[in-house]
Design brief:
This protein has 177 residues and is mainly α.
């Protein structure tokens, strides 16, 4: 299980870099459009591209946040609990997150399926085939669900083996040093 979790962390780091590059590309295009407007030109579609970039990078980036334990947690009770209690709070948190990710992934699919069926395009000058950004968006949510389920399974296995410190390492709260 530790090899799978290490692989998941490495993969999410790579995906986060790609998501960051997508955001950087969006910023670059926006800056170029602003400069072009100063001389009476426009690239067009900058806002559309930026919206796609934000949705796609967010859906992929949340998996990185998950493996870095960067998601917001209210840990007032957890901090005062014994190791077994902390592991229980961590299990509740990751199971809730995995459940939420699965529901979102499940609910995102019909949006993409409808687009694929209808061949919808954006109602903009670019007329982007919407299946392209929606496929990337859906894939990000699906990957987040897979990542959360893998971590949830690891937490359950560690709790069953009474390895509470291991639970803290993979699903605990990141402490500031």
């Amino acid at each position: 299980m530790s090899q799978l979790l290490s692989w998941l962390r490495r993969m999410n780091e790579r995906l986060a870099v790609i998501a960051g590059l997508l955001l950087l590309a969006s910023v670059t295009v926006t800056i170029l459009d602003i400069i072009a407007r100063r001389v009476g030109l426009s690239l067009g579609g900058t806002d559309e591209f930026s919206g796609y970039a934000m949705a796609i990078s967010t859906s992929w980036g949340i998996s990185y946040a998950l493996t870095c334990m960067a998601h917001v947690r209210i840990d007032l009770l957890r901090a005062k609990a014994a190791p077994a209690g902390r592991a229980l709070f961590d299990a509740i948190a990751i199971l809730s997150l995995a459940g939420t990710a699965l529901v979102i992934g499940y609910r995102v699919w019909p949006v993409l399926a409808k687009t694929l069926k209808s061949g919808a395009t954006a109602n903009t000058p670019l007329e982007t085939p919407l299946w392209i950004p929606q496929s990337l968006w859906f894939a990000g949510w699906a990957w987040f669900a897979v990542s959360a389920v893998i971590i949830a399974l690891a937490v359950i296995l560690h709790i069953a083996g009474r390895k509470f410190d291991a639970v803290d390492e993979i699903a605990g709260v990141r402490t500031e040093v």
